[in-house]
Structure formats: C-alpha cells, structure tokens
Amino acid sequence: xxxxxxxxxxxxxxxxxxxxxxxxxxxxxxxxxxxxxxxxxxxxxxxxxxxxxxxxxxxxxxxxxxxxxxxxxxxxxxxxxxxxxxxxxxxxxxxxxxxxxxxxxxxxxxxxxxxxxxxxxxxxxxxxxxxxxxxxxxxxxxxxxxxxxxxxxxxxxxxxxxxxxxxxxxxxxxxxxxxxxxxxxxxxxxxxxxxxxxxxxxxxxxxxxxxxxxxxxxxxxxxxxxxxxxxxxxxxxxxxxxxxxxxxxxxxxxxxxxxxxxxxxxxxxxxxxxxxxxxxxxxxxxxxxxxxxxxxxxxxxxxxxxxxxxxxxxxxxxxxxxxxxxxxxxxxxxxxxxxxxxxxxxxxxxxxxxxxxxxxxxxxxxxxxxxxxxxxxxxxxxxxxxxxxxxxxxxxxxxxxxxxxxxxxxxxxxxxxxxxxxxxxxxxxxxxxxxxxxxxxxxxxxxxxxxxxxxxxxxxxxxxxxxxxxxxxxxxxxxxxxxxxxxxxxxxxxxxx
Length: 497
Hints:
alpha/beta, 23 helices, Rossmann fold, 5-stranded parallel beta sheet
C-alpha cells in the first residue's frame, strides 16, 4: 500500500480519518489489537515460554483495563523481553507530522513547531510514518537520571541558532517521555530512579500531561507507561515511592520456569547451539542436567534466594558446554560434536558468576558449591533414566580393581575401547537411547553419564583427574539389637566371669 505523504492524502484514507486518529489513544490501540489476537487464537507474546497460565493472563487483563503496569521479578525472568514484545500490539504504521520530535498527530498537534507548520502548509503538510519498533522508548533507570533526561529542559543552543527568546516553546529540548508520545515508554529497574525523579512521573500517570521546566504550558501526551523492577532492589539500592506505586494500575509478578521442560525450551530458544563446520548431537540427558543445575541452585541453602538464580545460567552454561565439546572435536579431528557430563564441569566459569552465595557458600567457595550442584543435578537426572536398574555388575568391576579415565585429551574411539572392558556397561545405555552401532562419541557420552550417576550416588569413586575407580566403603553401623556378623553394642555385652 502506498502510504499518504501529505495531510490532504491522509484525509482521503478512511483508516486514518480525523475522528479515528484523534479519539483512538495508544492504550485503545493496544486493547483493540490484543482483542483481535485473542479472537484469532494467536499467541499474545511469541517466544515467551512458561507464562501462558500465570503472567500472560495478568498482562492481558492490565491491557484490557488500559492500565499502566509494572513487572516485578528476580533477574533473568524475561521482564525486559515482555515489555519490548508489547510492540506487537501496535499498528503496523502510524502517521505523524514529518520532522516532529514528539511524533505529533497531524489532526491535533500539541507542539508549537507543528501548529505553525500546519497554519502555513495546510493540506500540503508533509506526513511521515512510524513502525511499531520506533514507537517504543526504553530507559534503564540509574541514580544519575535527571528530570531533564525524562521530561525535558530549555536548550540555549537551540535558542541561539534560531534567534528565539529563551521563553519560547521553540527552545524546548524534549526528554525521553515526550519523545515516546503516541507510543510506549518503559522504565527498567524503576527502584534505581531517585525518589525526586520518580515524582516527575506523577502528572503523566494521573493527569496525562507533563510540564517542562520554565514553561507555563502542559503537554497532553498520549503514552502507555510500563515498568520493571527487581524486589531485591527495594532494600539494596532504592525503592519505589508510595505515591508512584499508587498510580501504577497493575502489579504483575514474574517467576522462573516451573518445570525442567519449560526451562529447556527457553534455553533451546536462546542459546547459541548451531556452530559452523561441525555436526552437533546434543543428548537429552545433558540438556536436562544443565537445567537441573539451575533448579537445584534455587533450592540450595548456600545460595541467596533473594537474589535468585537467573535463567541466563543454563543458557550460558549450554553455550560453554557445546564449546568445550567443539574444542575436543577440533583437537582430535572428530566430525561429530557430542557434549558430555565432563563438559558441564568444564563450563563452571559460566555458572559461578550467576550465583550470589550465602555465608556458608562463601566459606566453602564458589567452585565447591558449583561442583556439588552439578553432582546433585546428575544424580536427579540419572534417577529418571536408570531408576530401578541393576548396576551391581558394573560396580563390582570397579570394586575388583578396575578403573577407567575419561578426559578431553583422549579421543572418543580410544576411550570406547576401555569402556568395552566394563562388563554390562554399554548394554545399559539403551535407557538413554544409545545403540551399539552409534558413533564412538555418542557411546562415550552416554557411558560417562552412567558412570557420573553412579559416582553422584557414591557407588563408585572418581578422582579430580576424572579417573573412575572403586568407591569408598562406608562402615556398617551396628543395630541396637546386634546384627549378625557384627559385635553387639557394648551395653548389651555380658560381663566376663
């Protein structure tokens, strides 16, 4: 469609009639387009996983109510992504007076420059068009943000160049909020905004206008305001002042994925997994162990729950795991990249930085805590695949003095020859969908997962050099009544005659 380029051409289009453009505000536009999506059965926010029954319905209610709203949640819960996805509810194109800094409505301009232009040009006033992405303005709140940044200020340079008096509206330098006129204005990490700056948002949220410093005029802006905040910030760095919270229509809380499957879907969507030059085979159990690390971390007492464990942890861990497997393939000339459990330990640098430790965790060290998390995650995933399986034959092989070393420095084909000597090991891999004719890289990965699971359950041992050996035998405790083959407790012994 050829879009109108002058005001006269714009009047000829019923879709952009004066009555429609003047009466239909941004929140009405969001509401109408949302209703159309709901009726058509389309997903409201494509790419947002795990919120279909919780967060998304609340956002839908807020938009239908024409509310300004805030998303509250810990780090890595897709708050910014959701705010940016709101542009999918805007019209494909929006007309405005060409050259206007605040995207004035051609039928009802609010800035001095556009009113004068319309008075001179009339129907020949040039029209420009905005795409949805250009109608979204985002500001990361920091303590140094000023009212001039958000609302605007006098621009003496503009006055000097144009020969205007400082009291003229033509000397206004518009802030981010006026520049978001007829669009969406988002503030990320709202508590980091100084309290006196938060006061500057009162008028726009209640009366729908702003007053720029030094000018006795009010600009009636048309804007939808949305915010994000981390509850941890309320006490750590700042807070949302009560009058501002009172003016926010809806407060919506986000959360971490509820299941490993949802978490894996997010990681698969966000992680950079497809590398050039090498074929990747990513076993399902490796993906699940990586996701379980995050789930285990969120329950661990050594990790600060108030800070949370970001969904970025499994994403960056996955990328590092694949990279370590890719490095191994490059060094050994292998054409198939198959990540192993050992690669997760090699990806610890992608995990440690995502955790805020409590005092107990600090005393033990981040590396120790992460190793324990991985070991617990391996044990949980192992139980899903090998629950009830008889591994006694494999354990006995190690108890009789057997050992096997699985390191990156050794080619998969060489490791597989050693693994074939462990009675019953390769036959058990059918539980993880590894067949006898699979490439060596796949069989070694599956076998290492099984051995790591036995080690996680303390049935076999493993050294720091990744040598699997016999596990340490735990001394059996005597029962109070005595156990056959053991001495009875001292208090039950008869005295010597």
